[in-house]
């Protein structure tokens, strides 16, 4: 397993190469695809990429649960728990976002090279025939 070290403004792996630079390895790209394997993380990244300011977890929960078919209270609680304990920490560990657990806020921090890769990957993982919604662009 690759260890990712995050320093403000860059996503780097233990080999010292930023994700997305000319030294990007297959392993690093695979890590990005693993982060995008879950539909909630893809939706989360789309929300975070569309703003330059930190977003509160409660705002992210609201955005992510708007189209869910479950009961609102269950949907909101389940989404808040999985964001806090699973998805936000995983994305923060890769350096794609910063997640302040005490303030309950997340900020998109991927460097331009990673952002370009993510943009391509996010488009490729949409279901066949489906265009990204205005919120996802």
Describe the structure.
With 137 residues, this protein is α+β, with helices and mostly antiparallel strands. Helices cover 48% and strands 13% of the residues. It has helices at residues 26-35, 39-49, 57-65, 72-94, 112-124; strands at residues 4-7, 10-13, 55-56, 97-100, 105-108. The chain has a three-stranded antiparallel beta sheet. Strands 1-2 form a two-stranded antiparallel sheet. Strand 1 (4-7) and strand 2 form a beta hairpin. Mean pLDDT is 76; it is low at 1-18.
Helix-strand blueprint:
Elements: E1 4-7, E2 10-13, H1 26-35, H2 39-49, E3 55-56, H3 57-65, H4 72-94, E4 97-100, E5 105-108, H5 112-124
Antiparallel strand pairs: 1-2, 3-5, 4-5
Cross-sheet strand order for the largest sheet? 3-5-4
Instruction: Report the end-to-end length measured between terminal Cα atoms.
Output: 31 Å
The arrangement of helices and strands along the chain is EEHHEHHEEH
Q: Which percent range describes the beta-strand content?
A: 5-15%
- The shape is globular
- What composes the largest sheet? 3 strands, antiparallel
Radius of gyration: 15 Å
User: How many helices?
Assistant: 5
Sheet/helix structural class: alpha+beta
Overall mean pLDDT: 76
Helix content: 40-55%
Low-confidence stretches: 1-18
Number of DSSP E strands = 5
């Amino acid at each position: 397993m690759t260890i990712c070290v995050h320093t403000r403004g860059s996503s780097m792996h233990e080999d010292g190469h930023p994700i997305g630079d000319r030294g990007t390895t297959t392993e690093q790209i695979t890590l990005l695809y693993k982060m995008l394997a879950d539909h909630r993380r893809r939706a989360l990244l789309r929300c975070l990429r569309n703003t330059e300011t930190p977003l509160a977890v409660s705002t992210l929960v609201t955005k992510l649960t708007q189209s869910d078919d479950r009961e609102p209270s269950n949907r909101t609680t389940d989404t808040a728990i999985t964001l806090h304990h699973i998805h936000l920490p995983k994305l923060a560990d890769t350096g794609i976002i910063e997640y302040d657990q005490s303030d309950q806020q997340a900020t998109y921090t991927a460097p331009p090279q990673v952002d370009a890769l993510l943009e391509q990957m996010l488009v490729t993982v949409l279901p066949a025939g489906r265009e990204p919604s205005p919120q996802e662009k």
